[in-house]
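Bumping with the actual sequence this time:
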Amino acid sequence: MKLKATLAALLFCATALASSPHKYRLVWQDDFNGTTFDSRSWTKISRGAPDWRKYMSDADSLYAVRDGKLVLRGAVNTNLEADTARFVTGGLYTKRKHAVRYGKVEVRARLDCAQGVWPAIWMKPDYEIKWPHGGEIDIMEHLNHDTIAYQTVHSYYTQILKQKKNPPHGGTHPIKRDDFNTYGVEILPDSLVFSINGQPSFTYPRVEELKDKDQYPFGAPFYLLIDMQIEGSWVGKADPKQLPVEMEIDWVKFYELEKEK
């Protein structure tokens, strides 16, 4: 069954990459034209135990809106009396405010590079469920000074059952490293179709034979996270001399998938 499922997945990927016939309706966007981010749409991410949340902070110095762009920063912590963390990072999410079930999400962003820096644009279920059972969609992760972005799918099937190649659960794609790029994902009943600068870059299909193994837990509302991250088991140690860093977000767009008539 594994071979059959893999061949079906690869055929689906090739077909999906060739065209995207789906129609979408824009339901929400943020162009960051104010003087700060809109708290009706965004919430600061709090600190937590996982690598990506280890240095999250609500310090105002890590958040800004400048020239029509959201700015999230990562820096060496210089206020150890108030916070003992070595580094501090800024991040926002749309949890309980904006979510997409079936549709498309696009984010136009520019990323600073530094050793041990790990900015991300990703999605999680807009309801409480223990990770990774509800799934995770990594629209973009960038490491160090790479000229590529990582796009990955996580679930009970990939993380607990260790099925990361049947079908492949992630890919990489070149980016304009020092410029703005548009990162996207289409969330469909039968697949996740990732893109960079409007070009399909990776597809993760639903495999019918694997539905009893929670291979495709996508179909519930997912919210968006955008965050600057420093250090972790994947990206390695940071070089404080290369900090601070910023990620600039030009705009965010949420679309709903239009029903076929």
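The tokens above came from a reply further down the thread. Residues 8 and 207 are 8 Å apart (CA to CA).
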